[in-house]
Amino acid sequence: MSLRTAGSVLVVFLWSVTVVLGQNGWRVTYTTQSICTLKGSTVELTCSFRYPRGKVTTTFWFTEWGTGVEPKDLGQDPEYAGRLEYHGDKKKDCTLKITDLRERDSATYKFRFITDQTRGKYYGHPGVTLSVTGLQVKVTGGHQDKTLTCITTCTLTDNPTYIWYKNGHKVKEDTSSLDSDSFSDADSYSCAVKGHEDLLSPAVYGPRNTSVSVSPSGEIVEGSSVTLTCSSDANPPVQSYTWWYKKNGGDYQSMTGPQHVFNQIQSSDTGEYYCVSQNEMGTDRSRTINMDVKYAPKNTSVSVSPSGEIVEGSSVTLTCSSDANPPVDKYTWYFQNETFLNGCGQMYNISNFRSEDSGHYHCEAWNGRGSRNSTALMIIIPGKQTSVLTAAVGIIVVVLVLILCFSGFMWFR
Length: 413
Hints:
Blueprint: E1 2-6, E2 9-13, E3 19-21, E4 27-30, E5 34-38, E6 43-45, E7 47-50, E8 56-62, E9 84-86, E10 96-98, E11 107-115, E12 121-123, E13 128-133, E14 136-140, E15 147-151, E16 162-166, E17 169-173, E18 177-179, E19 188-193, E20 204-215, E21 220-221, E22 226-235, E23 240-247, E24 253-256, E25 259-262, E26 271-279, E27 282-285, E28 289-291, E29 293-305, E30 316-325, E31 330-335, E32 338-339, E33 347-350, E34 359-367, E35 370-373, E36 377-379, H1 382-412
Keywords: Membrane, Signal, Transmembrane, Transmembrane helix
GO cellular component, one term: membrane
InterPro entries: Ig-like_dom, Ig-like_dom_sf, Ig-like_fold, Ig_CD22, Ig_sub, Ig_sub2, VCAM-1
């Protein structure tokens, strides 16, 4: 067996025990029945043929043969366009060269020739089984005692020497496995076959560029549906995602999965969030994002100062309070359900409280998300209210007495 290479071209000549089939002088001899070679390389399927008489008019290789029709010439297949080179002749050599091999080229290839004689057609069985494989790095073991193995889907025919690369630099050869007590999460590893170093395996590496995206983007409004998605570049693919979050200054909590979904997000969900991705090669964490949930004013209320009994002539201050995000940017005051013309701030001051100021007060808080009214607060001057009540009772008594006197007078008459 000899191996010739040029760049990424792998040419395989296998001079094993030949397979000779045929009868009455018809025969096709394949130098091997099975070849396993690398994706991206070049292979030669070597064979020779003999026939008893006549002249060969047609030669071709095929992989498919439908019932009742001639097999399909690979030279007419668009899949092989520009990649087939027939190195044989029409006398005895039937060697075929296939370049830029692809995994879908894996098949059993057979040679057929046709002569100018009646029934002068023949093909060689069983043909050459071609398996095309790429290199892959398999990761086994724990985080601190991993083993990397360069694997293929079939056993390479030429029994090659393997080479290992770390971050693109050669670190070891002559072994299909790479052992280490410690692999860095930031490093990447790949393998190749000696003599065909440009046919590298895909690199394996720990998660990197881990990030969190928010959908929908833009302002987050209470009651809406919000999805946080963790994504990461990793090979092998990420095995697990872990979310860490701290709501409104509380302790960190965790959950697993690539997404964190809020069907109806609440103001209590405001806080810090980040995710950690992990595969067999290591871990990586995203930056922390701050979830700021916007909502209209809530829990709006009115407080009065000083508290307790209100004295006529005293100074009274009303304060409107409300929970809102963004903060309240406008307050409106109401007295007996009528808007104050001069009550626009968070605080409303009455410097000389009089009896006519007694009544119901409430406020309305506004921000960019909406508004909310407080409950009404009743403010009175106790002394004045008692005098009014006494006068009212006195008037009622006088009226009753007059009615009784009039009734008695009418009855006496």
